[in-house]
Every structure is written in structure tokens, then in C-alpha cells.
Fold this sequence. Notes:
With 180 residues, the protein is an alpha+beta fold. It has helices at residues 12-22, 25-37, 43-53, 59-68, 76-87, 130-145, 155-160, 162-179; strands spanning 2-4, 7-9, 94-101, 104-113, 118-123, 149-154.
Amino acid sequence: MSRIGRIPVTTAARTCWDVARWLDVVEAVAHVDSLVHQRVTGPADLTAYLGQRRGERGARRFADVLSLVDGGAESLPESRLRVRIVRAGLPRPVTQHVIERNGRFVARVDLAWPDLKVAVEYDGLWHHDPDQFHRDRRRLNRILGDDWIVLHVTSRRMAEDFEGVLTEIRTALRRRRATR
């Protein structure tokens, strides 16, 4: 336990422990990802904390959460998407993958399987901004020019058609494996 002024607060590691115990795995990973991304805590600290709590109720769940944590995730929805993809049995994607051409930056994608040139982009509500939409489409055209398959997922698809999303990702990965 730490203090901010005279107010007792939990440490970042203890907060992650509690989140892992109280929330479902997908939500817990999303929130721990956020704390790791913001450098409030790190994987080494969390692993050490798990070592201190081994054998306690909730330790196995905390270990499960830690096995899925990725500090590269830049938003809760991206984390949720990645964890659901992995828990569905698909290979773990790389977060915030930078695509380069001749050593020069082309784009950065939310999730990717770089060896197969398959990417998944989470499209949030901010896409109602016309300028951002224009930038995203220009970036998408550059990626497609490098022979990438780019799939887009929205919150609606996450909620209403996640099996369809998984089918699209599986199909893209399978097709790319077949041509390599």
C-alpha cells in the first residue's frame, strides 16, 4: 500500500491484481494493457508481484491475464479485440506494427501478422472526423499497394458479429499461408 498525501492507495501491481480478480479476462487484460502502455507499471513488476502471490486465490487468473498483456495496445477496444482473437485460437498478432518500404515508414497498423502481410484495424467513433477519415484512407491505399490485406473491425461488429470477424481473419491468414 502506498499513500498520496494522507490517502492510502494501492500500488499499480496490486491494482492490476485486483482488476484481474474482479473483471472478466478480456476486460482485465484491456485495463492492465492500458496501465502498462502508460508505463504506470511493467511486465517485470507484475511478474514479480505474481511471484509474491503464488498459491493465493486469484494467482492463476492473474497469471492468465499477464500472459495476454501487451503494452503496445493503444486503446481498450484494441486490447479487447486482440484478446478475443487470441482466445479464439488464432495466432497472437503484433500490436502497433510499423510497415516500411525500402526502410521508410509507410504506416502503422493496430494488429498485424507481418510475415503474412495481414493487418486488422479497429475503427472507433473518431472516424466521424472527415480529416482523420481522409488520412486513414490515404494510409490504407499505401498499405494495399504493398500487398497487405487489411481488415476493419468496428464496435458494432465486435458486439454483433464477432464470429464473422474471426472467419474473415482466419480466411485471410489461411490464404496468405497457402501462397507463401
